[in-house]
């Protein structure tokens, strides 16, 4: 059961993921969580680094699609300036939102990765949908009220993951070893 929470890769921040490596791996789309992964949960403006990374993805013909548990209007408002496609009310950790995006954008699970800052929602949903996952560190240390219980549970899961998988470590970028 603990394997369901194991990320494929662990990268400190989403915009450290190399679009050229993604292209080499046959990735056509990056699915991303919204809050504390793409943007801070309490600030909808993307950083200059994020905007540059989105531009680089476009140069490599890789689409960025947000998959969020938030309500439609919240996601739409948050992404207005970034002009990104999204799936709202994804019901992560269920694979529903990821599978919906695969179907809507005519993608195969091997053509995407899912990036998120939570084991309990993003990584677990990825594994449930048979999609490779990238765990990132939260952009800011504070969380929305509804995320705080997940972080407490995650601390227990981390202990079990580290016991079972001694090679879990943060990398500078993804690679094709997984």
From TrEMBL:
Which keywords appear in this protein's UniProt record, sorted alphabetically?
A: Hydrolase
Q: Which Pfam families match?
A: HAD_2 (PF13419)
Listed transmembrane segments: none
Superkingdom of source? Bacteria
Which InterPro entries does the entry mention? HAD-like_sf (IPR036412), HAD-SF_hydro_IIIA (IPR006549), HAD_2 (IPR041492), HAD_sf (IPR023214), PGPP1/Gep4 (IPR010021), S-2-haloacid_dehalogenase (IPR051540)
In terms of PANTHER family, this protein maps to: HYDROLASE, HALOACID DELAHOGENASE-RELATED
What is the name of this protein? YqeG family HAD IIIA-type phosphatase
Which species is this UniProt entry from? Apilactobacillus apinorum
Highest classification ranks of the organism: Bacteria, Bacillati, Bacillota, Bacilli, Lactobacillales
């Amino acid at each position: 059961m603990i394997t369901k929470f194991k990320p494929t890769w662990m990268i400190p921040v989403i915009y450290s993921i190399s679009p050229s490596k993604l292209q080499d791996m046959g990735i056509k789309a990056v699915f991303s969580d919204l809050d504390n992964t793409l943007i801070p949960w309490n600030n909808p403006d993307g950083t200059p680094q994020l905007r540059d990374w989105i531009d680089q993805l476009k140069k490599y013909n890789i689409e960025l699609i947000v998959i969020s548990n938030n309500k439609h209007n919240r996601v739409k408002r948050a992404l207005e300036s970034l002009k990104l496609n999204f799936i709202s009310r994804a019901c992560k950790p269920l694979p529903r939102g990821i599978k919906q995006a695969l179907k809507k954008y005519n993608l195969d699970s091997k053509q995407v990765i899912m990036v998120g800052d939570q084991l309990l929602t993003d990584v677990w949903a990825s594994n449930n949908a048979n999609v490779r996952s990238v765990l990132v560190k939260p952009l800011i240390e504070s969380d929305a009220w509804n995320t705080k219980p997940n972080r407490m549970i995650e601390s227990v899961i981390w202990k079990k993951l580290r016991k079972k998988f001694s090679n879990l470590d943060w990398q500078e970028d993804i690679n094709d070893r997984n």
